[in-house]
């Protein structure tokens, strides 16, 4: 049995008017076309729905029973369509992004503000978490895209570099005189270094830079939050080695001496997406805004935040 909601709606319209001509006009169709729809419906059901004479049309007992059932079916179908449309409308304004905390603080507020202007009532979820967790959330389909560092090697993901971030040394008090404004990696090893933990991309980049020189990178202290690192430097516990971008949200950094690591690593920052599937319209808009903010950061912080690497030939 192959009966469509459209056929049931036509049947219900005729069951209420009991007039083929008026019903056909109401449905913007010809009377013969309506008659054929009813005949096809009766053939599918194996049931006569209307008694027709030259003067009148009326429902049969079976037709009256079907009308009661059809109203329920059509009502449930239309309610389901409304729920589907509502769900689609909600999905169109839903966005989920993962980014490590300092990047989330520097980039995503401007992105969210732009989305508020471009899209009616967007529903945005931000996951500020460690770099590895950002990638895992993307693989688990928990987020539309991730802002991360270090291009993932996973075959299901792709990476678009946005910028490169230089590392800096922060010093204060008694340590200022021992840290020149330009310093080399080898010189740093003689200082009490305070860094982020091994889970951070900053530690991974610095460890790799020293490993390439055959030197083990052994900081004096490691902590999880950049604000804590800065607070320790202000107390003259040691000097900090941090990526420049991560310090932009800490106002007290301005009280410290900033030194450039002349041969230090450059931390890559980019957008990570899944290879399969297409991003939603709101995700596409958000990624465009991320690119715009990244360009602005490069222009506003020359020498510290650099453009993406040139393409390989």
TrEMBL record:
<feature type="domain" description="HTH lysR-type">
    <location>
        <begin position="1"/>
        <end position="60"/>
    </location>
</feature>
<dbReference type="InterPro" id="IPR005119">
    <property type="entry name" value="LysR_subst-bd"/>
</dbReference>
<dbReference type="Pfam" id="PF03466">
    <property type="entry name" value="LysR_substrate"/>
</dbReference>
<dbReference type="InterPro" id="IPR000847">
    <property type="entry name" value="LysR_HTH_N"/>
</dbReference>
<keyword id="KW-0238">DNA-binding</keyword>
<dbReference type="InterPro" id="IPR036390">
    <property type="entry name" value="WH_DNA-bd_sf"/>
</dbReference>
<keyword id="KW-0804">Transcription</keyword>
<comment type="similarity">
    <text>Belongs to the LysR transcriptional regulatory family.</text>
</comment>
<protein>
    <submittedName>
        <fullName>LysR family transcriptional regulator</fullName>
    </submittedName>
</protein>
<keyword id="KW-0805">Transcription regulation</keyword>
<dbReference type="InterPro" id="IPR036388">
    <property type="entry name" value="WH-like_DNA-bd_sf"/>
</dbReference>
<dbReference type="InterPro" id="IPR050950">
    <property type="entry name" value="HTH-type_LysR_regulators"/>
</dbReference>
<dbReference type="Pfam" id="PF00126">
    <property type="entry name" value="HTH_1"/>
</dbReference>
